[in-house]
Design goal:
Blueprint: H1 2-22, E1 24-33, H2 42-60, H3 63-69, E2 70-74, E3 78-86, H4 87-94, E4 101-104, E5 107-110, H5 114-118, H6 130-134, E6 141-146, E7 186-191, H7 194-198, H8 215-224, E8 228-233, E9 236-241, E10 249-254, E11 256-257, E12 260-262, H9 263-275, E13 280-283, E14 285-286, H10 301-311, E15 315-319, E16 338-343, E17 347-348, E18 350-355, E19 360-364, E20 377-381, H11 392-396, H12 405-408, E21 412-416, H13 423-432, E22 437-441, E23 459-462, H14 464-476, E24 481-484, E25 490-491, E26 518-521, E27 525-528, E28 547-550, H15 553-570, H16 576-585, H17 607-610, H18 617-620, E29 625-626, H19 631-640, H20 645-652, E30 673-678, E31 681-690, E32 695-702, E33 707-712, E34 715-718, E35 724-733, E36 742-751, E37 756-765
Parallel strand pairs: 6-10, 6-13, 7-10, 13-15, 15-16, 16-26, 20-21, 21-22, 22-23, 30-37
Antiparallel strand pairs: 1-3, 1-4, 2-3, 5-12, 5-14, 8-9, 11-12, 17-25, 18-19, 18-24, 20-24, 27-28, 29-31, 31-35, 32-34, 32-36, 33-35, 36-37
Length: about 775
């Protein structure tokens, strides 16, 4: 009895501790910007930190408690702090007149070569391309907020690099056991993990900016990696690896570990990168759809950090997220960032299944071994080969130790991708049980898409639809046979098409802003990788490779970051909004067969998937006209969402007054047009700035189905660079039947003899 009573007391104690700890969590208290400028001293930063201690002291009872509670003081460009607080304290702090916003931290996820040739950017073969004009990104500094960097990669060699820009204020943290050395290419590397530690999400990662995951090395080299001949991923995609701006300097801010990315750490990374004077910040992270992780922009770490970047003229590029293909899944939807979806390139890794009835089924694979092609193998369903005592549904997805070796030895095993079991691990299960090969069938949700993985045995992945064909054959014979063809790389396939995983619009908080903005290569992208772990992330996999093929909007995002670097070299006087406009208005909605871009299902893709279209770098250098914006335009946008003049003046450290008549959100001078709900009619206004030779542009409109569109005036004349002209677009619903309501899409193009300035139109028609 005494032992039971003691056990009960222990559980009561544990439960009490859990309750106490659950009552506190990490919050960010945002106060705007600091008064000190770019010439701030260490004393200024300490003074800011002390003010945060003093501020919090009045809520938690003492300066000692305030110091213990504060995780970070943001002292450089962003004014605020992150602290472990009780909910009641957070609510009280939010009422203080000096506070702009208080919000709990968000945990973000990572959104995980030939792509540059596909974009027509091979330097020797295209002398009119951006690289020639921009001297491949010289004097530009591109930063990533990610998992750090593997400095030994050849992609970060400084051979041929110029000197480090004099404005640079950062450094490489080489003081730890796993430190990162700098050179003239890799000029910055710092790590931030206090937020993740406070959230108890940190594992046994190293306290260093060194990349132990591979994601950050991949994204940084995609944006600005040096030329590396002979790069390959396990024998696939052999060629020269390079980044979008190979002449640019790079800096890695490690804000993510193996368990995720704390918003508290991300904001610290932003604050430091802005202080260090980077030119572009690439953020291949997402908290998921925009209804997660804040909906008012100033309660979201990435939106907040990027707004401060915008105020300093720094471009921030973000991934759209990997939560597609459902609509309203797009993340990172702030209008001052470039939000990038993912699409395919014209390279494929086909691997065919040959059935006993001579039929061929196309699959995808990067398997390192192949079967002899002079024989056929018996095919067995994983569910029919369950080990004794194992549920058949576990064997169907080839779960670890789920297969009976006596049933699968020497056979090809059919496994179903259940979206939970790692695909590589499925192959390991088959191999460990003595299987000869694996056919992996996609699930119903992902449908007709396939993924090429570096399997440890002969294997290929086929679509859900083709899986039905395979099952039909297997049922038609008592002895189903098959073989899997060896690995191949095919160039010149039809592309781009939208990746199935790429998050789709409309934007949840503000459907008046079409998101994503553009799409870029994001499927099977070859780039540098860490040699700390296997690229599969599986402990049992001992393979290492200096380059690896990855897919995700994490991969498409740095493509655009690299292009922004090149555009900034060509046009150093352009604003970040002008650069964004140039990328968007020169994008295409057709593939390399000159037909409308397709979705992953084969249907025609829409602007909810690709935004304004697929990037065309060389055209972006000469857009003709741009839709420009100032930071004040974005602040007026925030005024409409309910923020006050006092809130927003603190952000830019100068007087700002919200317009007496709130801005109509559709009237933000955006390069695309989106209408939240069109019942009868509405009018939107846009302004174009000339950045090219004088000329007259005429409008051409492809109206959305069931919507009448009128543009006034129908032509615009510009006499010099910097001239601005405004126009209106009237949209009128002609739909009477409720069954015809929903999103309709069109295109508006201003054109002269040289340029086409294109904008997608997305209208949600309500009857």
């Amino acid at each position: 009895m005494k032992g039971r009573r003691l056990t009960s007391l222990v559980w009561i104690l544990i439960f009490t501790i859990i309750q106490v700890s659950a009552a506190k969590k990490s919050y960010i208290v945002y106060l705007g910007s600091h008064q000190h400028g770019s010439d701030a001293t260490p004393e200024d930063y300490q003074r800011a930190k002390n003010s945060h201690y003093k501020f919090l002291e009045s809520y938690v009872g003492s300066e000692g408690k305030a110091r213990d509670a504060i995780i970070y003081s943001y002292t450089k460009k962003i004014n605020g702090f992150a602290a472990t607080l009780e909910e009641k304290d957070a609510e009280d702090i939010a009422k203080h007149p000096a506070v702009v916003s208080v919000f709990p931290e968000t945990i973000y996820k990572l959104q995980t070569t030939r792509s540059w040739s596909f974009l027509d950017m091979d330097v020797p073969e295209n002398r009119g391309s951006i690289p020639t004009q921009a001297n491949i990104g010289r004097n530009v500094i591109i930063a990533t907020l990610d998992t750090g960097v593997w400095p030994e990669s050849k992609s970060f060699s400084d051979e041929g690099m110029g000197p480090i820009p004099s404005k640079w204020r950062g450094f490489c943290d080489n003081s730890t056991k796993f430190g990162v050395p700098c050179n003239n290419k890799l000029i910055g590397a710092q790590f931030f993990n206090k937020g993740l530690l406070a959230s108890n999400l940190e594992e046994d990662d190293v306290n260093s900016a060194r990349d132990t995951e591979g994601h950050g090395t991949h994204t940084l080299s995609t944006a600005a990696g040096a030329f590396v001949p002979g790069a390959t991923s396990f024998g696939y995609a052999n060629g020269t690896a390079r980044g979008g701006a190979p002449g640019a300097h790079v800096a890695a801010y490690k804000v993510c570990q193996s368990r995720g990315c704390s918003g508290v750490d991300i904001l610290a990374g932003f604050d430091t990168a802005l202080h260090d004077n980077v030119d572009i910040i690439s953020v291949s992270l997402s908290a998921g759809p925009a209804y997660f992780g804040g909906t008012n922009f100033l309660d979201n770490e990435i939106a907040l950090g990027s707004l401060h970047a915008a105020a300093m003229g720094i471009t921030v590029v973000c991934s759209a997220g990997n939560d597609g293909p459902d609509t309203m899944t797009v993340g990172n939807v702030a209008p001052w960032v470039i939000t990038v979806g993912a699409s395919t390139i014209d390279r494929d890794f086909p691997s065919y299944v040959k059935l006993g009835n001579e039929k061929l089924i196309k699959g995808a694979s990067q398997a390192m071994t192949s079967l002899p092609q002079n024989q056929m193998y018996t095919v067995i369903n994983g569910s029919d080969a369950a080990a004794p005592g194992v549920y058949t549904y576990l064997a169907a997805s080839c779960n670890t130790s789920s297969l009976d070796p006596e049933k699968v030895k020497g056979k090809i095993v059919v496994c179903i991708d259940n979206m939970e079991m790692p695909r590589i691990l499925m192959g390991m299960t088959v191999k460990d049980a003595g299987g000869a090969g694996m056919i992996l069938i996609n699930n119903a949700y992902w449908g007709d898409s396939t993924v090429s993985d570096p399997h440890v045995l002969p294997a290929t992945m086929i679509s859900y639809r083709d899986g039905a064909t395979l099952y039909s054959y297997m049922k038609s014979t008592k002895n189903p046979l098959a073989n899997i063809s060896p690995k191949t790389t095919k160039i010149g396939v039809q592309a781009p098409s939208m990746a199935y995983f790429s998050s789709r619009g409309p934007s949840y908080p503000t459907p008046e802003i079409l998101k994503p903005d553009v799409t870029a290569p994001g499927v099977d992208i070859l780039a540098a990788f860490t040699e700390f772990i296997s690229p599969t992330g599986i402990v049992e996999d001992e393979r290492r490779t200096p380059f690896y093929l990855l897919s995700g909007t994490s991969m498409s995002c740095p493509h655009v970051s690299g292009l922004v670097g090149q555009l900034k070299s060509v046009h150093p006087d352009w604003s970040f909004s002008a650069i964004k406009s140039a990328l968007m208005t020169t994008a295409t909605i057709k593939d390399n067969r000159y037909i409308p871009m397709r979705d992953h299902s084969g249907a025609e893709a829409t602007p909810l998937a690709y935004g304004n279209g697929h990037i065309r770098p060389n055209r972006a250098a000469h857009p003709g006209l741009v839709y420009d914006n100032t930071i004040e335009n974005y602040l007026s946008f925030l005024c409409t969402l309910g923020y006050t003049s006092a809130n927003l003046s603190g952000l830019i450290n100068k007087a700002f007054v919200c317009p007496s008549e709130p801005m109509k959100l559709e009237n933000l001078n955006y390069p695309s047009i989106s209408v939240r709900a069109l019942n009868k009619s509405t009018v939107v206004t846009r302004t174009l700035k000339n950045v090219g030779p004088p000329g007259t542009y005429k409008v051409r409109v492809k109206a959305p189905s069931g919507v009448a569109v009128s543009v006034r005036p129908p032509s615009l004349s510009f006499s010099k660079v910097g001239d601005e002209r405004s126009f209106t677009v009237a949209l009128t619903s002609q739909i009477k039947n409720e069954n015809e309501s929903g999103f309709k899409f069109g295109r508006l193009v201003w054109t002269n003899e040289i340029h086409q300035v294109s904008s997608s139109i997305a209208v949600n028609v309500v009857a």
